[in-house]
Specification:
Chain B: One of its GO terms (cellular component) is plasma membrane. The complex is a heterodimer of chains A (about 270) and B (about 400). Chain A is an alpha/beta fold. Chain A is built from 10 helices and 10 strands. Chain A is globular and about 50 Å long. Chain B contains 14 helices and 11 strands. In chain B, the strands form 2 sheets. In chain B, strands 3, 4, 5, 6, 7, 8 and 9 form a 7-stranded mixed sheet that branches. In chain B, strands 2-10-1-11 form a 4-stranded antiparallel sheet. Classes of the chains: A alpha/beta (about 270), B alpha+beta (about 400).
């Protein structure tokens, strides 16, 4: 009786653009009443489908602001943000909710799983808001948990899982509605180094399978897994450079016998 | 989606069992007292109408009572001829009429002495008032016309006097109007004990019985009060008016001097009392539901604040304003409805317990239960609107940052 008919504009459900993310002269100003704080200054940026990008910067550099805008949690003050061809600047908040639901998979630093709710139910959540039938939701959630290596732990509550396992549940949840964009905000910030490598390997795997992954981090080690590193300082985009991912580098290093040094991460051991 | 919301709500309520129970308390007390009082009222109504069903709803007593407080005149009393005349004039509308006579006597059989209240009746009295004969027969026209010393006794009295319920054919000695004579028992009846009457002490010390009216009322006697049964289905208020006017005219009195006391007017006053009681109870219920509802609103506000982060997560994952709103409305409605259900169980349980202890048949209408639970859910929705809209209006960035 309280069901409201779901009306999703066509532009949200259709893929229209090869440029998944396009920022055009985007400015974000925080108006705190007495003073105005410039969060981001005229950012122009394009990320194509299938890229694996790290956004780096110290705290206060504007990377969190950018993250909120890329995640459609916030709107630019000036300029435009096109996500999959959709200009998000003037959309009402319920349309932004629908966009977040269909287009973006979030992975947070503090996992942000819903407590006292099983891993399975957590993964089902975005599908619930997409009004997918219970049966289909459960099936897909199980598949996703299987994919992130938690196939047998679907009934566990978040507090019964380790940090790395929680983050994998969160990644499974991010993949639930097959969004074109995976947005990860310091995904390894609360993890030990072994778990961090596991999670980054998982992101690399997703990227190799065709997903677009954008992650925000301040750790060089983490950014090293990506193909492209964008650096911010004081609200300005200061550098945008391609990167050879660490896993490829490892392979190349292994092919050269005169380099006996240990690789930086014991990735093989960590993934068990 | 509604089902998901309901499971989620039950989940959230279970997570804080004690808190939820305390929150429900106002609703439990409100709904519980309403159910209890309404059921007591319905039980009373049922019993009273049951009594009147036995007595007959068209029963009326008619007498002259000067409205100005002056003394009664000799002509205000009725004679046997008057009664016969009324019977003749109103033969299409009155099925039974008598002089409403009764004598308290002491019946003697051997060494046994038992007090009886003997009611004088006409021959077709059993047609308008059920007498449950278990031995022998009712008084008949022959007994009345022949002014025979025949009686019908209640089984308990018969047993006390004769040592056996089947006293048909036995006789006892008693004195009526100074004449001592023997009276023969022609029938024994079982009095149906009405628990409500027994409770209010309606049946006196005396055993009951019937004897021919003609023994108690002689042709020259004066009758203060006539008893009549109108035809089944008569509109008593219009009949009362016409009949009173007729009596007033024949007795040379004003209409106001005639009292027409009927069971249906009595029933009306009972309904009036019950109506007043219901209004009082409704007031109490409204206040406790208001207090209970505010309690629910309070705890929902706490819950919304506690779960700010959860709300942020849900919104980030695609929950719309309406989704969050419905989630919290469902929770407060279920919380309140659960209070309503517990209240119904408590209230009905108490009434059942009381009824069992007093040996009464308890009436609890299913409709009352449905309305009570439905109404408590509505209270939950109403008082959930403010907290739910607070939850729904949260900014996802702020909510995600909440510790």
């Amino acid at each position: 009786m309280w069901k409201k008919k779901e009306v999703i504009p066509d532009y949200i459900t259709q893929n229209v653009s090869e440029d998944l993310i396009k920022l055009v002269d985007m400015v974000k100003i925080y108006d705190t009443g007495s003073i105005k704080v410039l969060g981001l200054k005229r950012v122009n940026l394009t990320i194509k489908r299938g890229e694996f990008v790290a956004i780096m910067g110290q705290s206060g550099s504007g990377k969190s602001t950018l993250m909120n805008i890329l995640g459609c949690l916030d709107r630019p003050t000036m300029g435009h943000y096109f996500l999959d061809g959709i200009d998000t600047a003037d959309l009402p908040s319920d349309d932004l909710s629908a966009i977040r639901n269909r287009k973006i998979g979030f992975v947070f630093q503090s996992f942000n799983l819903i407590s006292r709710t099983s891993a399975l139910k957590n993964v089902e959540l975005p599908m619930t808001y997409a009004h997918i039938s219970k049966k289909a939701r459960e099936k897909r959630a199980l598949e996703l948990l299987e994919r992130v290596g938690l196939g047998t732990r679907y009934e566990h509550m978040p507090n019964e899982l380790s940090g790395g396992q929680r983050q994998r549940v969160a990644i499974a949840r991010a993949l639930a509605n097959e969004p074109p964009l995976i947005l990860a905000d310091e995904p390894t910030g609360n993890l030990d180094s072994a778990s961090s490598v596991e999670i980054m390997e998982l992101f690399s795997k997703l990227h190799n399978e065709g997903a677009t992954v954008v992650l925000v981090t301040h750790e060089e080690d983490i950014a090293a897994f990506t193909n492209r590193i964008i650096r911010f300082r004081d609200g300005n985009l200061v550098s945008d450079t391609p990167n050879i991912p660490i896993s490829k580098r490892e392979k190349e290093e292994l092919e050269e016998p005169e380099e006996p040094e240990e690789p930086e991460y014991q990735s093989g051991d960590a993934l068990c | 989606m509604l089902f998901e919301n309901m499971t989620m709500a039950v989940h959230a309520i279970k997570a804080n069992k004690m808190r939820s129970l305390l929150t429900m308390l106002g609703i439990i007390i409100g709904i519980g007292s309403v159910i209890a009082i309404v059921s007591i009222g319905d039980t009373m109504r049922f019993m009273i109408s049951d009594i009147y069903k036995d007595v007959g709803t068209t029963l009326a007593y008619v007498y002259i009572w000067p409205s100005d407080g002056s003394d009664m005149r000799q002509s205000d009393y009725f004679s046997v001829d008057d009664v016969d005349r009324i019977r003749e004039v109103y033969k299409d509308e009155i099925t039974y009429i008598d002089s409403s006579s009764q004598q308290n006597v002491e019946a003697v059989f051997g060494r046994n002495k038992v007090k009886f209240a003997l009611e004088g009746i006409g021959s077709n009295y059993p047609n308008v008032h059920k007498i449950n004969i278990i031995y022998g027969r009712n008084l008949n026209e022959g007994d009345i016309k022949g002014r025979k010393n025949h009686v019908v006794l209640e089984a308990e009295g018969a047993k006390e006097l004769f040592g056996t319920e089947n006293a048909v054919g036995k006789s006892f000695r008693t004195t009526i109007y100074g004449d001592t004579d023997d009276y023969d028992v022609v029938g024994v009846y079982r009095k149906e004990e009405n628990p409500f009457l027994a409770m209010v002490g309606g049946s006196g010390e005396n055993k009951e019985g019937y004897l021919p009216e003609s023994i108690l009322v002689w042709p020259n006697d004066t009758i203060y009060n006539i008893r009549l049964y109108a035809k089944e289905g008569t509109d008593m208020s219009s009949f009362s008016e016409r009949f009173s006017q007729y009596i007033a005219k024949s007795k040379n009195r004003k209409r106001e001097d005639v009292t027409f006391y009927s069971v249906s007017s009595e029933m009306g006053s009972v309904d009036q009392i019950m109506g007043g009681l219901s209004a009082a109870v409704g007031g109490i219920a409204a206040i406790s539901l208001l207090v209970g509802g505010i309690g629910i609103m309070n705890i929902m506000l706490v819950s919304v604040t506690e779960r700010t982060r959860e709300i942020g997560i849900r919104k980030a994952l695609g929950a719309k304003t309406w989704d969050v709103m419905v989630q919290f409305l469902t929770e407060s409605a279920i919380l309140s409805a659960m209070g309503g259900i517990i209240g119904v169980i408590t209230g009905a349980g108490l009434v059942f317990l009381g009824g069992t202890l007093l040996g009464m048949t308890v009436v609890i209408k299913p409709m009352v239960i449905i309305i009570a639970v439905g109404f408590s859910a509505l209270v939950g929705v109403f008082f959930g609107i403010y907290p739910a809209s607070k939850a729904a209006g949260k900014d996802p960035i702020e909510a995600l940052r909440y510790e």
